[in-house]
Amino acid sequence: MAGVNGGYFDPDYAPIGLLISDGKMIAPLRRAKLITGVLAASPREVKILRVGEFSRQQKFNAAVQCG
User: Fold this and answer.
1) Which of 25, 27, 61, 63 could disulfide-link to 19, CB 3.0 to 4.6 Å?
2) pTM of the full predicted structure?
């Protein structure tokens, strides 16, 4: 079991940091002090990764950048 603090938005409700939904990138990965992790899911697994470990080549169906 794990918990993450993710899904940040700017004042115009645009996502801050990586957001992937149904395999489509909604917002790109960002480098920032408070969003240093990624929660990512594929049909076979769910992973919590550091930003530096995340790769788009892994073909995740869903992902959110988190703190």
Assistant:
1) 27
2) 0.85
Mean pLDDT to the nearest integer, 6-13: 86
* Residues paired with residue 25 on neighbouring β-strands, in sequence order: 20
Rounded Cα distance, 36 and 56, in Å? 16
Instruction: Give the CB-side neighbour count of residue 13, counting CA atoms within 13 A.
Output: 0
Q: How far apart are CA 67 and CA 58, in angstroms?
A: 21
Render pLDDT for 45-61 as a digit per residue (tens, 0 to 9). 999 999 999 998 889 99
Q: Which residue has the tokens 């489509």?
A: 24
Burial (Cβ within 10 Å: 0-12, 13-18, ≥19) of residue 19: buried
